[in-house]
């Protein structure tokens, strides 16, 4: 008999645009019936089409954090896929996991596929240049 873990878990999937974050997150969620969230999900217009707006970045990341917390409080396992190029960008998620006493896993994608959002190469290079490795624990 298998006893399922009833405590929510949080998985962060990080990587550069086109590294496979969304694909991996989607597969993890399909296999385990987890909730998938990404800031990009909240970067859509009224018809549901993706529309990047630098001015809305703070707002959409905050919404992703809020939705993550809501789902965790409801007892769901959550997978968040965002670039997370710098460690401080993950800090709100690390803090919420710590505050709630839940398990957190960080997965780093390093594939080199085409970005689904057609991000210019120069922007990807800038992200790569500011990339921070995870601290050793």
Could you walk me through the main structural features you see in this protein, from its secondary elements to its overall organization?
The protein has a single domain (9-129), classed as 3-Layer(aba) Sandwich (Rossmann fold), CATH 3.40.50. Helix content is 35%, strand content 14%. It contains four helices and four strands. Strands 2-3-1-4 form a four-stranded parallel beta sheet, sandwiched between helices. The mean pLDDT is 86.
List the helices and strands and how they pair.
Layout (H helix, E strand, L loop, with lengths): L8 E6 L6 H12 L2 E3 L19 H17 L4 E4 L9 H10 L2 E6 L12 H9 L8
Parallel strand pairs: 1-3, 1-4, 2-3
Helix pairs in contact: 2-3
CATH topology: the name is Rossmann fold
The total beta strand count reads: 4
Strand content: 5-15%
Largest sheet, order of strands side by side? Answer: 2-3-1-4
- Corresponding CATH superfamily: P-loop containing nucleotide triphosphate hydrolases
Question: Which regions are unreliable across 5 or more consecutive residues at pLDDT < 50?
Answer: none
Please give the CATH class.
Alpha Beta
Number of helices: 4
Helix-strand sequence: EHEHEHEH
Radius of gyration: 15 Å
Structure class: alpha/beta
Q: Give the name of the CATH architecture.
A: 3-Layer(aba) Sandwich
Q: Work out the helicity level.
A: 25-40%
Mean pLDDT, rounded to whole units? Answer: 86
**N- and C-termini, Cα separation:** 34 Å
3D shape: globular
Count of domain modules: 1
> How can the largest sheet be summarized?
4 strands, parallel
